[in-house]
Amino acid sequence: MAPWAEAELSALDPLRAVWLTLTAAFLLTLLLQLLPPGLLPGCAIFQDLIRYGKTKCGEPPRPAACRAFDVPKRYFSHFYIISVLWNGFLLWCLTQSLFLGAPFPSWLHGLLRILGAAQFQGGELALSAFLVLVFLWLHSLRRLFECLYVSVFSNVMIHVVQYCFGLVYYVLVGLTVLSQVPMDGRNGVIIHCNHRIPFGDWFEYVSSPNYLAELMIYVSMAVTFGFHNLTWWLVVTNVFFNQALSAFLSHQFYKSKFVSYPKRRKAFLPFLF
Predict the structure, then answer these.
(1) Quick one: which of 252, 268, 262, 239 has its CA closest to 51?
(2) Three-state SS for 239?
(3) What is the pTM of this model?
(4) Higher per-residue confidence, 21 vs 35
(5) Nearest to 49, CA basis, from 77, 72, 69, 75
């Protein structure tokens, strides 16, 4: 076995454990949703936790206990505000370290150590991490712009647990990127809020091309790190099942709402799923 492979598999550090746990949770949830309707978990709290936005709407009405934990879906912009600020700060720290030789703040250095920052890789990963962090920051900036000036948010809701997860997610992703650096001392006009069947381009193949594009963004980051970076591939795997679940629920929503919905269109992966 190659030395890098032995090093990658030698320990399950805290970051990898977190991403592996999240990946397993989303995979299990997706598999449960693929069961025949009669076998699906009937717990209203479970369904309320995994659904958001339009996929929460339907019959029977949600219990009042579930509605008490609702947060407007338009709060999605908070995720990207946090990401732009936090990951911008991490990018600034990494830039200072790479090009000016300035050390990370002691608290950040200690946090990365606790999370299992890279101890064995060569220094070439520092530049890869810099590029990935730039991509992540630009991606967050673009999504923030879309939330503020492009997206049309109706009065749909998300669960407060999903909201908190979204806030933590981008903080954790940024720390995961930075942990790959060896620690060696260095307003649009709203027409309507009704749903319509979109056509053209990727919509001819999948119901939610935005989820597929999100996955491709993270895959491109994985390519930047190198194909053998196990930690980042765990991030990609988590994103895959996370987006697959959201795409599947949206696909179900569209099929139930539109009788004429294209039958050849898949939920997430063209021709496959």
Answers:
(1) 252
(2) helix
(3) 0.80
(4) 21
(5) 69
